[in-house]
Amino acid sequence: MLEKFIxxxxxNTVYDIDLEALYAQGYRGIIxxxxxxxxxxxEPHATPELVAWLETAKQAGFQVVIVSNNDEGRVxxxxxxxxxxxxxxxxxxRRKPFRKALSLMNLSAAQTVVIxxxxxxxxxxxxxxxxxxxxxxxxxxxxEGVMTQFNRRMEKVILRRLRKKGLWHEEExx
Length: 174
What we know:
By secondary structure, the chain is an alpha/beta fold. The chain has a single domain, classed as Rossmann fold (3-Layer(aba) Sandwich), CATH 3.40.50.1000. Helix content is 39%, strand content 14%. It is built from six helices and six strands. It has a six-stranded parallel sheet, with helices on both faces. The chain starts with 8 loop residues before the first strand and ends in a 10-residue tail after the last helix. This is HAD family hydrolase.
């Protein structure tokens, strides 16, 4: 069971992801979380750097869908200027929002990666759905809501257990 919380790849930010390598491995879709994965939880819009990264991903041949537990207003405000489809109020780690994102892209789980900053929602949900999971460090942990703060405490417990079993090594982070 603990293995479901282990991402396939750990990086500092989305900018550290080798999109060319993922494409060469057959991945064509990116499902990404929004808050503290792409921008801070209080940031309403994409940064110029993120806009450039998203454009690079699209030019490389990737489809992108944002799957967020946040409300429609927050996610829509962010995605509309970018023209990116989204799934809001996702209730991750449920499989349903990931499956909906796959349907929006018309891709299989084997063709898709999920990027997120939380083990309990993004990684666990992605692994349960058969996606290639990528964990990034949270951008602005100080701005997190009560549920996310609770999840972070639970992540610490899971990390201790993973380390104890020899399943988590800090040097794997890029």
